[in-house]
Amino acid sequence: MRGMNKVILIGNLGTDPDVRSLENGSKVANLRLATTEYFRTRDGKNSEHTEWHTVVLWNRLAEIAEKFLRKGSAVLVEGRIRTREYTDKNNQQQRVHEIMANSLMMLDRRPNGGTAAGPSEPAPDAEITDDLPF
Q: Are 56 and 30 in contact, with CB atoms under 8 Å apart?
């Protein structure tokens, strides 16, 4: 039996995208995405829980994020969960879980009905997908 690793998240950016250019010319962007669920507790009170996700975008998706996304932007991201380990500056082993995105949809709308972009820039297509470099 084959497994499936697919994640779909809808949320808001907690910070501006962190975009870097690599030596080979590729771009990579990291997003901090908040997803919030609302629920009623057993005693009837309204409550919420926010989960923070690290989303990694490569190449064209990173360029789109750099140009059009800002703190607070609403997005839909599709991708897969990737876990990686590294040794931090204190020589401690760390494990991080990231969402490797292969699709990005900007959900913000401008007053004229277009997708939110910059103040004077045309919006890109509402949904953008990209092949990952691995």
A: yes
